[in-house]
Design a protein that fits this description.
The complex is a heterodimer of chains A (236) and B (290). Chain A is α/β, with parallel strands linked by helices. Chain A contains ten helices and ten strands. In chain A, 49% of the residues are buried. Chain B is built from ten helices and two strands. The chains are: A alpha/beta (236), B mainly alpha (290).
Amino acid sequence: MGTILKVENLTAAYGGIHALRGVSLEVEEGEIVAVLGANGAGKSTLLKCISAVMKFNSGSIEFLGKPISNKPYELVSAGLVQVPEARQIFAKLTVAENLRIGSSLRKDKAGIKEDMERVYALFPRLKEREKQYGGLLSGGEQQMLAIGRGIMARPKLMMFDEPSLGLAPVIVHAVFEAIKEINREGTSIMLIEQNAKMALGICNHAYIMQTGQVVTYGTGQELLADESITAAYLGE
Amino acid sequence: MFLQQFVTGISVGGIYALLATGYSLIYSLLDFSNWAHGEFAMVGAYVAIVFSTMLNVPFVPAALAGIIGGAAISFLCERFAYRRIRKNGSPNMFLMIAAMGLSTVFQQAANLIFSGQYRSYPFKLPISTVHVANAYIGVLDLLSLVITAVILIGLVYMINKTQFGLNVRAIACNAPAAKVLGVKVDKSIASVFLLAGGLAGVAGILYGMKYNVFPTMGNVGLKAFISSVIGGLGSVPGAIVGALLLGVLETLVSGYISSSLRDFFSFALLIVLLLVKPSGLFGVEVQDKA
């Protein structure tokens, strides 16, 4: 098992405001790694840098031992795929079409079909609503669709940006179960979350960020057990 | 009489549709009105004139050259004007203003190079007619109708059934998300401009065969705009239906009332539509959920 993602000493800024001040973290192959922290801690900025949506100032990001490309489609074909914040469903595309966007760079028809079946097995609701417009789904169904769309790219590392945001607790539970299942099937996971308890419950390791820096690192169980940490950094 | 008018209307509408679909695709991707779209048709028409009358190339290859010319000018406008404006984060209004500028530049350039005179293709078939059920239908109208139908069916298939079409629809829906998910946004936009320019080239040549080729013929782009508004801006099937409807209505107005009222009618229709139903026939809104 090697390192799939390695971020070293990353700094990034919006105008003059430093959003990341030297962030380092690693995701090992096969792991679920959580990145936690309150609003404004720099979690989303970190994800934007990793997915080449935003330019960083200094430091490095390596995926599978190579510096990441600055073109999102090259990242996706290399196996680095994200499930974006607020789901970003294509409202005027059907469920099946949304999924086909996830596999837009792939040419292996048989494999695409197979993954479509995998998604439908994981989320039978999506199969039922295959022909409906994405915009007509409920929030939870849209989250399932966003995850399914990520699976369709056959990722090596899947990055989730706040998957629990705005969802009812029962749906959040289902979403986290799905993330665990995807991980069991062999995909490494990076999970950006504000819902610290849920994330710590399923991750191998977690990084806690505050004002653009990593302040604490540990296994999910360690951090979950340490109440001073959850109280100090996660506001619970 | 009515059948004759109707076929003419559909064939004129088909030419509008070739322009309106490309215009609509660009509008759906970039959210701006490409006022240079009619000029893409004009450029295509002149390229075909140059090849067929000045270089004595047979008409069909000359027409193909014209289509390529329309595609090329459209591609170049995107590559060197619109893309730069998009990338430097300017408001969409700038794209529209750039398009207006390009439109004037192309018109004036055509005027300088070719003078304002009306030119026609050395292609005689159009004058003949066929006799169907008491009506005389122009061969050009029929030819134009068949060509347009084949192209539009192909286009609708491409938009709805291929991965390219799907990518284009995804970009139209949410470009940043499509980009993050691996869709090659710039490449897709460039391909759409090539396609839209090629369609405009076909329209320009068909229009030129019917009404001659002249520097301001690109004003027919306004009809594409009206067609798209009728059908719902940004909708390709809407643009086709809108264009056919406009073509038939215009022909009926000029046939039964007066041909000088044709454009008056079209623009009056545009104003009424913008007042009464700005979303058009196919402008159905599907809401994003939070």
